[in-house]
Amino acid sequence: xxxxxxxxxxxxxxxxxxxxxxxxxxxxxxxxxxxxxxxxxxxxxxxxxxxxxxxxxxxxxxxxxxxxxxxxxxxxxxxxxxxxxxxxxxxxxxxxxxxxxxxxxxxxxxxxxxxxxxxxxxxxxxxxxxxxxxxxxxxxxxxxxxxxxxxxxxxxxxxxxxxxxxxxxxxxxxxxxxxxxxxxxxxxxxxxxxxxxxxxxxxxxxxxxxxxxxxxxxxxxxxxxxxxxxxxxxxxxxxxxxxxxxxxxxxxxxxxxxxxxxxxxxxxxxxxxxxxxxxxxxxxxxxxxxxxxxxxxxxxxxxxxxxxxxxxxxxxxxxxxxxxxxxxxxxxxxxxxxxxxxxxxxxxxxxxxxxxxxxxxxxxxxxxxxxxxxxxxxxxxxxxxxxxxxxxxxxxxxxxxxxxxxxxxxxxxxxxxxxxxxxxxxxxxxxxxxxxxxxxxxxxxxxxxxxxxxxxxxxxxxxxxxxxxxxxxxxxxxxxxxxxxxxxxxxxxxxxxxxxxxxxxxxxxxxxxxxxxxxxxxxxxxxxxxxxxxxxxxxxxxxxxxx
Length: 547
What we know:
It is built from 22 helices and 20 strands. By secondary structure, it is of the alpha/beta class. The C terminus is likely disordered.
């Protein structure tokens, strides 16, 4: 026999959960106590539930393991919704465990503290599977079902609410087995059709998304690209699946019109693990992959959703690419002029983007790349240096080292970075705007508490720089985007985090060296008024692009 809380702790241990983020509450105290007593999972105390949910997401993206947040019912759970939405957008393995009112009171509207009898409906709007056991014997099997779903096919967040009385009640022991369903390869017929189409073509291009990283299929992807001599484009989530210094890597430029012009004569586009997201304003939906589209994805609902796939291939990316490599016997060489045209187009894009951040800010980002090892974590919030440099120009060399909000939200950068650095166990650098950092600035205290090796670079222009730029381009004026000055070095100091303000490139380089040597977090507050201004230009409403 074991209490419901003890069964939750055992379920997490069985799933290999080494860390879980949490905020203690009267509605989850038994679960947290049971986790600490079992000793298999270390609890990480965050300062806000939304931050904890983002941290669990960052943890999952950096490690490939399930990230976990434990929250209170009602207001604590509603605070988690933004983090769950971001995890869903990023196809991230994330589990929320929350309390709930005692079963005798649940749904009766009697004013039980923190009650929300529509909580499950709320969670179901952003989670693929949710559970709400009504008796102690159901706690373990329903938890197991949610964990199993999170690890099935394309990852999506899941949630379970456990009424407080069931956390104390006892139930029979439960064997948590079968939590990780075996991935499935695609049908041999569809793989062979894809192989025949690829072998008979000579102007091939590959488009890769985060599904390849999720499947751990980076090595297979590189082998296939080299076998086909096919240039590789990625989306934001696919960065690092092929190193940026690989001669076939074009980078995160699928949404660029100049790239589409250069590849318009492709006879085959091979898309793997990408849903072809519509992007800001839906503009990317018009960028149709050229030639015959072969689309490989573990999620059948994704294949053909945005663009008609002439050859749909449903299966795990790693297994399917291995099968495809085996099926490719004789392969025609790719057209060298076609390849050169694409590589030149990508180089032209890079040359054109860099000056948009002015003369000095790109130098700061170059310094970060030089200081980070190849496997260092490159983390971003949604801010101008991320959009115009970090998401495309900053070299990324390994999977799971490039993490940014998939939903283009402002604010998740710091908590996602905390989770990523904790999970990966190595240093990271996160770049933030000042407006975005203020969403979760109290999590600097979390970074200090656990001595996380994280450098926080704040590009401080006293407002929402991305939105200012968009407003100027669309309306010719700005409004509600000026926030006033904040001294983030002093703010960090008040939360036991070291840091400093910088007003020049040399100051930044010195500060970065100091941050790299600190045993714990370090804040660098970059005063943009002292740097050469951005040269972004206006943005017509229909021409906005996600980075």
